[in-house]
Structures are given as structure tokens and as C-alpha cells.
Amino acid sequence: MPFPDIDPVIFQIGPFALRWYALAYLAGLLLGIYYMTWLAKRYALNFDKETLDDFLTWAVFGVILGGRLGYVLFYKPDFYFYNPGEILQVWKGGMSFHGGILGVTAAMYLFARKRGLPFLELTDLVSVAAPIGLFFGRIANFINGELFGRVTDVSWGVIFPMGGPLPRHPSQLYESLFEGLVLFLVLLFLFRFKGLRGRPGFMTGTFLIGYALARMGVEFFREPDAYLGFLFAGATMGQLLSMPMLALGGFLVYVSFRPDDKTVKKT
Fold first, then answer.
1. Tens digit of pLDDT for each residue in 197-222?
2. Which residues lie closer than 8 Å to 254 by C-beta, 6 or more apart?
3. What is the DSSP string of 183-250?
4. Of 2, 134, 201, 238, which one is least surrounded by beta carbons within 10 A?
5. What predicted TM-score, i.e. pTM, was given to this entire model?
6. The Cα angle at residue 67 between residues 6 and 251, in degrees rounded to 5
7. What are 18-58's pLDDT values in tens digits?
8. Average pLDDT for residues 241-261, to the nearest whole number?
């Protein structure tokens, strides 16, 4: 299949250009906050609209700063060490999801501490909405023709402009499906049960497990970054960075089912 001719720039007025990638971030953040507000009202959670609207600013800084610094440190540390001026040039591309999640986690911790909110309850609510941003972000990756998959002979293989003459897996769409839509539906289904959403850390752990498994699986179809290639034991950087997420997710799910001190005393 030929790559669809979609201009990464939606429109441009003078030096200002609105790109699909920026729109994806904007849609993910705004729809995510709207969804969190709806869930908080639907299930009578301890978060009002004003609080979640205020958190949006913190989330924006967490995603952008964490995503950019994660890319700099995890993927191209040598390049940016010798070209520090390039670090701030985000419009040239280069964001890391794993860095972004670290940035958002820091933002959630600081916000929860400042407002006196339960940290894990906030992370649970954010985790349920996070796949929305992942869905749109991976669609934008596809439109940009970046982060494409490995060479394949499947009938839906796509010839990407930057990927040479051979068809490749549209791995961005695989990630959009599994990291985005499927994970969103799984978390929505689980969140409906009071016995699960009432366990602080459970939804966060489930999100981390779900994302890690989806990312590690799709990495088998995704072309490794040219400047990194295959790393330890043939794994990619995306797989290696997802392993700690998988372990942390399992730990949070385990801890969420442990009886607290009050329950132990009653029994």
C-alpha cells in the first residue's frame, strides 16, 4: 500500500504552523481531562471539575518536559550533549512516552501534595484517561511517517517515504489500537466495578501492565531506532524501558489487594 499523502501541517499562517502532532497532544490532554471529570462525577469521586481543570496545566508541563528530557536522555544523549541548543527545539520532533510518564508522575505527586489529595487515587484516574492521548499520538506518528515498522510481506504493509522502497508494518496503527483503544476499553470496563476502582493503585498498576505488554509486543513489528538498533539480548529500547513499568504495575496491583491495618484489626 502506498503511504497516504497527508501533510503533517494542517495549516500555516506566516511562521505559525499547526501540526497534526501538536493537535494530537492537545486532543489527548483536553479529552482526557473531560473524561476524568465525567468519571469523577459519574462515580462520585473526590475530584471536582475545578481541581481537574487546574491539574491540566500541571499535566501539560509534565508531558512536554518529561517527554522531551526522556527522549534526550534515553535515545540521543550523545547528540544533545554536543548540541544542547537542540534540546529546546521540540518542533523538530523527539518525544519519549516513558519520559512523559515520568514527567506526569512528578506533576501528579507535586499537585497532590500541594492540594492535599490522595496520590494513588489521582494516578488511578489519570491512568484510565491516558490511553486517549496514546491513541491520538500514535495516529499522529503515522501521519508523520515516523516510527514505522519492519519490512513485511503482509497485504496491509505500507511504503513509508522515509522507510525505503519496501512495504513495512504500520506499527504506529498497531500501537494506536492496543496501547490506545484496547487499553482504554479494558480500563473503562474495570473502572465500572466499585471493588476495583476503590483499591488505590489498582487502575494505575493495570494501566502500566497493559501498556508495557502492548508496547513490548508491538516492538517485535516496529523498526528499531537507527541510532540505537537492537540492544541487550536483542531487545529494543522500547522493550527495555517497558520492563520496569511491567514490574511496577504488578507491584501496585499486588499492593492494592493487601488488607490495610484497619481491616486486619477488624478480623
1. 999 999 999 999 999 999 999 999 99
2. 205
3. HHHHHHHHHT-HHHHTSTTHHHHHHHHHHHHHHHHHTTTBPPPTTT-S-GGG--HHHHHHHHHHHHHH
4. 2
5. 0.87
6. 120
7. 788 788 888 999 999 999 999 999 998 989 999 999 999 99
8. 90
